[in-house]
Task: structure prediction
Amino acid sequence: MAERKHPGASENNLPTGINERNSSQYGDKRAAHPSGKEGYGRLAQFLRGLAFTVYFTSCHVSTDRWLPLRIVVTQFIGAPLYFVNREWFYAYMAMTKRSFALTTTVMTQIWGPTTIRISGDDSVAGQIRPTRDGGVQFSFPERLVLIANHQIYTDWLYLWWIGYANQPAMHGHLYIILKESLRYIPLIGTGMMFYGFIFMSRKMATDQPRLAYRLNKLKKRKTDPSGKSYLDPMWLLLFPEGTNLSGNGRRKSGQWAEKNGLKDPEHVMLPRSTGSFFCLNELRGTVDYVYDCTVAYEGIPRGKYGEEIFGLSSTYFQGRSPKSINFYWRRFRMTDIPLDDQKQFDLWLREQWYKKDELMEEYITTGRFPPMAGADFDFVETSVRTRQPWEILQVFTVVGICGLVWNNVRKLLNAASKGLGF
Result:
C-alpha cells in the first residue's frame, strides 16, 4: 500500500526497531535482536528448517535422488541449444533465471516475510507506483545498469525481485558481477555461469578481457525478421564497493580514505571505480541510464553491520527477518556521467557515495528515507511476493515434461521388447 505521511522518528528518537539498549549494547549476544525475540522455539526452528529444506530441494532437486539441483538439471537439458541456435539458448536460460527468482521470492514470502518500503527522487518520478492489490509496479527500462551499496549478502535477492516487479518483468534478464570465488561453488557456480553472470578476480589485467567479452555479448545488436535492429533486454547489477559492508571492509575503506586524503563515509564504503568505469564505457551507446539504489535494513544500529544481525538462520528459521527493507532510487543519464576521464568518473562516483552516506544518515536518524518525489504518496509499502501463488509451478515445467516423455518412451520400449519376445 502507499504510505500517506512521513512518520519520522520513533518515540525514543531512534528508528523503528532500535531502542536505547539495542543501539548501545548490540553485538553482545545477550542484547535484544532488533527484530524482537525469536519467533520460534528450538523445535519449531528445526521444523521450519526442515520445511525450508524440503521446499528448496523440491524446487531445485529432481525426484531422482542422484540428480543435482533441479534448476541446474533444467539448464543442462537446454545446454545443447547453444550449438543449435544461440537465440533459443539464451531465451531458455532466461526462463531458468525466472524460475530461480520465483523460487527465492516464494522462499522469502513464506520463511522470511518483510516489508519493502520504496521511494525515490525526481529522476524516477512516475516510475514507481503502488498497485491496487498492495503490490508495487516499476516502469524502469529494459536496458539499464543498476548500482547499489552492499549491506548484506542477500541484497541481490531483493534487487532481483525488483526485476520481477518491473513492467515489463526483467527477472529473466538480470546479470550480476560477482567475486571469482563464487564460480567454484559446486553446482551453484555452474548455474551462475549458465546465467551469464560475470566473475571478477579484482585484478583488472585479468578481468578486463573477460569483462569485454561478456559485455560485448550484452551490447550486440540483432536484427528481427523485418530487418529492424534491436538489443536484448539487460539489467546489469554492480556493487561498486566490491563486497558487503563489514568491520573488515569498513577498516580497509577508512585506511584507503586516510592514505588518499579523502573523506571517509560513515555508513558505506568508498566505491572502487575502475571496474564500473570500464563497464559503463563498454556499454556506452547501448544503455541510456544508470539506476542507483540505496538500501537500508531496519534494525541495524549505528556502527553495526547487517551481516552480524540478519543471517540465514535469523531471517528464515528464527522468524527474525528485517522488519523492513528500504530502497531509495535515483537515475542518471549516461550522457551526464563523465566517462571520458577516469579521474573525473572516480570523483563523480565517490560523490554519489557521499550522497548515499547522507541518505543513510537520514534513515538512521528518522527511520525513513526522503519521501517519493512528484507523487501523492510518500512511500510505497509492499512485501516480497509473487503476483499469483501458482507461479512457482513454472519451476517444475521442463524437468516434469522431460520426465513424462522419458516415462512414456520407457513404456513403449518395454512394450516393444515384450512383443518381440526379448
